[in-house]
Amino acid sequence: MLAASVGLSVSTSGCLQHVRSIVNRNEVEQLSLTITTLSADGDRESIQLAQDISATLETAGIDIEIDMQSREAFRRSVLINHDFDIYVGRHPGDIRPDFLYETLHSKFADESGWQNPFGFTNLTFDTYLDRQQRAGGEEREQAVSQTLEALALEQPFVPICVPHEFRLARTDRFDGWEQGHLATRMGYLGLDPPTTEEAVLRAVHTDSRPSQNLNPLAVEFRNRGLITGLLYDSLAVPRWSEGGADAGGSDEETDGIEEDDDRTYTSWLGTDWTWNGNGNENENENETGDERTENGSSTDTDTDPDIELNPDADLEPTGTLTVTLREDCQFHDGHELTADDVAFTIDFLSDTTRDDSEFPAPSPRYRGHVDPIADVVKQGTYELEFTCTASEPVAKRILEIPILPAHIWDERTETASIPAITVADGTTEALITDNLPPIGSGPFQFENRTEREFVTLERFDEHFTRRESVALPEPSAETLRIRIDPRSTSAIELVETDDADVTSLALESYVVDDVLAAESEREQTSDADPLEVIESSTGSFYHLGFNARTAPFSNPRFRRVIARLIDKEQLVSDVFYGHARPIAAPVTREWTPDSLAWTGTDPETPFLGTDGELDVEAARAAFEEAGFRYDDEGRLRVRY
Amino acid sequence: MLTQLLLQVAVAVSILLSVALAGVVGRDRLSLLREEWKSRLRTSAPAIALLLAILLLNRIMRQQGRSLSQEYGVHMTEVFYTIEGEFVLLFQAIASPEANAYFSISYVYGYVFLLIFPVVAYAALPKTIDFRRLLIAYSLNYAIGLVFYILFIAYGPRNVFVEELTQTMLYDNNPQVQYLTTEVNRNTNVFPSLHTSLSATVATFAYQTRSTYPRWFPIAVCLSISIMVSTMYLGIHWGIDVLAGLALAGFCVSLSTYLVDRWSLTAILKQVRERVHEYRDTVTTPSQKNS
């Protein structure tokens, strides 16, 4: 009996070994992925891009599902929970390429917000980004080109196109729309007539989120910071390059940006600032005739012990930025705005728990702006010195952050609690509060709102732009009423019927042709209708993001093949009716290196096919070359 | 703009109503209603209260339930698309400016009229049973619809066939309409189609009462079919939503028949009152003895 069983087990053991090695191999399955995107009510272009891309990928043998989400839910899945395979959406972008640092640096892969939602980690790439962050002068341009070329090679995300922005405005009640960019606060200031009592500026906004939440740190609810900019002041205002670099129609190259202070920032809450570089390059540039003479290479002597922002010892400080604030400014609730609030804001953005919790919870917004600030030293009520670990142009991004009132946000450091629901650690009150009413120091103050209907802002008469001595554009209207209207067609109708003065968000592409046709008709018939189509440049772009945390999206070869399945030129004409610029590099024209300039096709990852029609054989060959396999039925198989 | 539009709808619907009331219900019934409305209202008070409560709840929950739905709801858009494919695009074959106008009007004005008219018409009947059944059926439709809206997250076809439906989309052709229909903000409330279920409910009632209101029956059927088609033609609902709406209507009509007159509130009250009396008697008797 015993012998029999021993004999049996011996005889089967070889077989079992064989079975185990078969069973323990995970199955190679058909690649099935979900494209997360917005519904047509949220962003018409995104869903159309996703649909076109999914159709192409399906012909290449990939099983695709499209997950449509609302604006907030989309951002929550992609930017906070990183719960996606591939997403298609719009990146806020920037007019300067410095945002690439937080967008792709591996040290941000674990954070939420627009910093590295892809979970892209590549040490070589990090060194390019570090170099871009710290290089100045000509080296900076080289470093940016190098980063962009590496990006085109690695494709952590596929930049698709930069849409042209069109807005419709009435000129009979307010004029001077083209003075400031309508996606920023400056578009709504300094309008003619200069000061109108009891006048209401009526904007129609096609996104309902500002009526639900006005927290400048809530990444799900913020777009490009228009309303934040009206409610909160920054130290300085970035200047948009003249002439609309990305305005549609003209294909002319604009001049490269000169790294000259006067052209990059205008003074705002800060009256002037001085950069003192460490070491060899000791540039000393002033904004508005600064009289102080500060000697260079100043290392902090009396460091505020509370503020230690970047403990990364590897980074030698590159210089200091001394900023002088405008005096006697106050918040909407009457509190005075001093250097304390500025220092607090920078500290708070890098850790919204303010060292109370076991680990820091950085703000999902403005991360890249505060990251190069290693230390803040207050030098009086209205003066601060920032010790920076980045080059001058990068360090100066700190001038763009909204200044939060310390006395309000100081109390929002606790981990938020909702009865009966476990809240993820690091979710501080500051990140989830709806911040109503928002108290800032900006040119407009919050009056009231009705969810999904309107937000009303009142002019803040104490704002410094209202002073006689300040020659900056000031709020001319007494009231700014932002009406929420979810569709471009009805927004246009409101402007046409004199129920609104301006569409504050760019019109959806499918109505642009109609609007332009109506415009030229008005010109021909010299109609007295006081309507104006405003075209503006933008740094914002559509892209396809990979979740590089999981296979096969972690494989750069895979990402490159996917990039080659996307016909950007065709998508621009199909989805944007030609009102967009296909791109290989996610930056404005003047920062695009020649090697990545659009030449009618993508210079790095050209489309595998013609006129939107995929060459299936070529696509298969590309996948196979990248090490993937197809089965008999033409399905792409991968090991997860 | 909203008030102007509301006024427009109110005027249009009241004209329709007065014509239909005169033609369908008749002067005799209406004058009787004028005399007896108080007593009929009293009999129907529980049903009216129920409907009002449900409508109020519906209003609150459509706002509040959103976050709940986003958190726990099941995403169904892809499932619907897989099941029925491009079915709703069949209606694009009849797309034309006239069809746009007809279906938009049916969807907005026709629907309001279709829901209000039977309320008045059945209130004008001496027996309140149909009136109460109708109100209960409406309440059930809204209540069950609300539960489904929270459970299932689905986007309508206009979010999937973005390009194909541009020509017939309600909100692009009549942008002002979106102020009336709340769907555009709560764009995930498509399953089931309440436009369909309520229209079908009214049509079923019209069938059941066709001997009383012979002229109403064909009107109700035509109108409710137009409304159902319009939901798909305008890209608001999937075919599946419409089917589910029909099923919901059938369920609500039969349940309303089952529920009405099952319990009489007055009888219950009477019973309670008797109990209270009995109890008081038993309590007071011993105490009297003691004193």
Structure description:
- The complex is a heterodimer of chains A (640) and B (291).
- Chain A is globular.
- The two termini of chain A are 46 Å apart.
- Chain A has 18 helices and 26 strands.
- In chain A, helix 5 packs antiparallel against helix 6.
- The longest helix of chain A has 22 residues, at 2-23.
- In chain A, helix 2 links the parallel strand 2 (32-38) and strand 3.
- Mean pLDDT of chain A is 84; it is low at 242-261 and 280-313.
- In chain A, the strands form 8 sheets. A 6-stranded mixed β-sheet of chain A has the order 3-2-4-21-5-22.
- Chain A is 27% helix and 19% strand.
- Chain A folds into 3 domains: 29-163 and 539-638, D-Maltodextrin-Binding Protein, domain 2 (3-Layer(aba) Sandwich), CATH 3.40.190.10; 166-232 and 442-536, D-Maltodextrin-Binding Protein, domain 2 (3-Layer(aba) Sandwich), CATH 3.40.190; 237-409, Dipeptide-binding Protein, Domain 1 (Dipeptide-binding Protein, domain 1, Alpha-Beta Complex).
- Chain A has 640 residues and is of the alpha+beta class.
- Chain B has one domain (44-268).
- Chain B has 291 residues and is mostly helical.
- Chain B starts with a helix and ends with a helix.
- Chain B has a two-stranded parallel ribbon with strand order 1-2.
- Chain B is globular, with a radius of gyration of 23 Å.
- Chain A binds chain B through residues 39-41, 44, 47-48, 51, 65-68, 70, 72-73, 208, 451-452, 486-487, 489-490, 493-494, 497, 499, 510, and chain B through 1, 63, 70, 75, 77-78, 155, 158-160, 162-163, 166, 171-172, 175-176, 178, 184-185, 187-188.
- Chain A: Residues 270-281 have a biased composition (Low complexity).
- Chain A: Residues 249-262, 301-314 have a biased composition (Acidic residues).
- Chain A: This is Family 5 extracellular solute-binding protein.
- Chain A: Residues 320-634 form the Solute-binding protein family domain.
- Chain A: Residues 242-314 are annotated as: Disordered.
